[in-house]
Design a protein that fits this description.
Layout: E1 4-5, H1 8-27, E2 34-40, H2 44-60, E3 63-69, H3 75-87, E4 93-96, H4 106-112, H5 124-132, H6 140-151, E5 160-164, H7 171-180, E6 184-188, H8 195-199, E7 204-207, E8 225-228, E9 232-233, E10 239-240, H9 245-248, E11 254-255, H10 262-281
Parallel strand pairs: 1-11, 2-3, 2-4, 5-6, 5-7, 7-8, 8-11
Antiparallel strand pairs: 9-10
EC number: 1.5.1.5, 3.5.4.9
GO biological process, one term: tetrahydrofolate interconversion
Domain Tetrahydrofolate dehydrogenase/cyclohydrolase NAD(P)-binding: 139-281
Length: 282
Amino acid sequence: MAATLIDGKAIAREIREGLKARCAALAARGVTPGLAVVLVGEDAASQIYVRNKERACKATGIRSVAVRLPADTTQEALEDKIRALNDDATVDGILVQLPLPAGLDERRVLALIRPEKDVDGFHVQSMGALVTGAAGFLSCTPKGCLELIRRTGVPLAGKEAVVVGRSNIVGKPMALLLLRENATVTVCHSRTADLAAHTRRADILVAAVGRPGMITGDMIKPGAVVIDVGINRLEDGRVVGDVDFASAEPVAGFLTPVPGGVGPMTIAMLLENTLESAEKRA
């Protein structure tokens, strides 16, 4: 029996409709949420991501502020721009599009964003809040993945969850979110011995490594919830995930497609975080 596909596009659309209503309620009080996206350089993929975020903001009722800087922008100039956005009372969220051009210190830049405007959830204080259970913005992609898992109706408490990948952007915060939901969590990475032995135990499997087709059907527990975070462009132009969809679909209970699974949820969660920041301001 084929897996039930988790339609991230449809779920994200439903979430955005709810956000539109909340934005309208704020507008009635004279408050318009504002999201500033800082893009340094001409990276083609980053340009697409930023345009997608701008369109999503417009459709939801959030004011989008695009800050485009040349690739030769200095560290000092970039940090000055972040400070100015911190001080701008009309900006509720600040996102720095990664990766930054070579020579710029990503950690220093992210650390400058005020935690109350860190809607991407990358600030060390936001990550610390996740570890300790304090209030703070959650990283958008892991937050979106968790929402997709919840939409399946599969309870997380007591389940075996395996996260493949340990990046600061997805792997680590995803593991912490699952742990917070009372799952028993294993994090696998490039040094993990016998990866398949771990993934076959997983009731919940999240793949976030950036390697096309790395997780195959014989590595998946029958009936598992499989969340594919990978977005990989092949030489023939096709976009595929970290999970081999053809072999995984007959085995998994629930499966996210690529594209159309996690990607739309990341933007929806970014909008939700920005709106929450604006509601606090209001």
